[in-house]
Structures are given as structure tokens and as C-alpha cells.
Predict the 3D structure of the following.
Amino acid sequence: MSKTQIKIITAIDSFKGCLTSQMANQAAAEGIKSIHPGAEIVQIPVSDGGEGFIEAFHSAIGGDIQELTVNDPLMRPVVAHYLLKDKTAVIEIAQASGLPLLTKEERNPLVTTSYGTGELVVDAVRKDAEHLIVGLGGSATSDAGIGMIRALVDAFAKNGTWDDITELKHVHFTIASDVKNPLYGENGAAHVFGPQKGATPEDVLTLDKRAKRFAEASAKHFGYDRSETEGAGAAGGLGYAFLQYLDAECTSGIRLLLQTVKFEEIVKDADLVITGEGSADRQTLMGKLPIGILEQSGTVPVCLIAGRIKDREQLLNAGFAYVECINPAGITLEEAMREEVATQNIHETVISILKTNRL
């Protein structure tokens, strides 16, 4: 790099349960500064629809954070937030319907509901939002969005039926998800994601049958069926409810965010992009955040860092210029997950990458 001042972009996903995207970016930036004190560093908080989605959009577009009490997945009061900017609202479904709201013992997708997500939608619409961007990551539910629909009916339906609702007709919905699974079947929401939400093998079959019955009844009512559409299986079928009932458009969360921040313009004259996530492997290549960054970076080299690396050769073959694990060999997960340890490890890894590759 012959320029007197180099430009490096950091766009690192949150390390779940450890560092936010902003914290990870800052750790990387400190590492860059120690090698290149005069570098131009552009930090872009990022999220693909899960944790940090609201914060990433708030950083990108501004607006006001709204706070309200809604029902959690077990219908208990919980304080949730979403972003409102002019006529656009950005909702993260995990705020109301997320797995972190439950203890391990409370996880049971046979009873958890997406009702609270519906309450967030209701509040945004009542505050005159006309475009709702909904991040579908980290849900505790597998109710095909029935809970959300009930909340909308309870709030807006004059006679208690979906066809009575007029308030939603002028609202455009965009759902952000990297999940391409259908609503039900072998690759559907229950079979693929149910177990991590607490479903037993028997529960998975029950949930899958429920979802299929609901989709068949909905298709009969509307005259069309979106249960096979990409994204229908996201967030325990919440994706399906948005697609079928609210005519939502489904897009990649990271692609949407990068368009919003005009990433293609920012990256044009960059020398390096540093992205990352908690764990990187071949699944990273299936639409996850770092691959979205790679696709939008053009010819600028992209460095991928992560707390755990598998399938390194495949990641390099996909186009990442450098793929590095931030954790030293032998470190325990508990130690690696400590905020100050992860921060220091990102800092030192970035220094090592810049020195080793003479960047």
C-alpha cells in the first residue's frame, strides 16, 4: 500500500453474549491505530437481522428509540425497544420474542408465542410508520407467527377477524433474514430450528403439523400460499406470517443495511475491510453477515476474524483474503467469552494481521 494514509473499514458482527458490533469494531480500530496512527478508520456497526439490528440502523439513519412494555414469549411483561425515523420503523423481533428472554428451563416452543412482536408492530403503526423493517433473528417461538397475527387482530380488527383490518393496508413490510427455509417439512422451521428452542423430537412433529395446518387454512382463505417462499421458516415461522398476511418483501439483513449506509461508496477507496463474527465455518458462506460484506466489497481485500474458525480453506476459497481466529489455542470458552479478553484478542489479532501481511 503506497498511499500516505491508508483507509480501513471495520464491519464486525456482535460476538453473541460477549461483545456488541460497536465494541468489536472499536477493539479492531484500536489495533489498527497502534500500527497506523494516521489511518482513516471507518467503523460500521452491523447486524443481519438478529442482535444489534436496531443499533446498526440507528447508527446508519438516526431516529428515536421507542420504549414500551409488551408481552414476552411466555406472555409476561417485558420492556422492549424499536427505532422510529420519520415514517420508517426498525423492529428486532428478539426484543419481544427472543430466546435470551427465557431461561433454559423455560424454553418450550409448544407454548411460546410471538404475540409481543405483534404489539411492537401495532405501536409502530399507531405512530404513523408506513415502512416497517423487521429483523427476524433469535426467536424463542415456533408458532408460525400466529401470536403476532392475534396481537394485530386484537388491536385493529373491529369485529375480531383479519378481513376487518384497514390500518395495515398502507404499510409496507420488509423482513430481514438470511434463512431460506420453508415454513414446514423436513427443512422447515420446526425440524431445523425447533430443537435449539427446546423442542423434543415429538414436539418437532407436533409443531410441524400445526404449521402445515395453519398454512393450508391460510392458503384457502387468501387464495395463495407463501409457505414455500424463502424466509417463511425464519423465526419459527414468523417470516411466513409476514409474507402471507402482510405481503412482506424478504431480503438479506446485511444487504439491506449495507445499502442503507451506502457501503459501496464507502468501500471504493478502502485498502482493507475487516469483518467477523463469533464463529465462522462453511455456514458463513450461506448468506451470513461476513459473506454479505465480502460480496459488497468488490476488489478490496476482506479479512475475516472470529472466535472460532472451522473450514478455513473453504472460507479462503470463497474469497476472504485472510481468515484468523482471535483466540489462542487452549483458551477455555468461559475465558474467551469475557468482554475484556475478547476485546484484547481482537486488538492483538488485528495487529498481527497487519504486521504479518505488511499492510
Remarks:
- The chain has a mean pLDDT of 94.
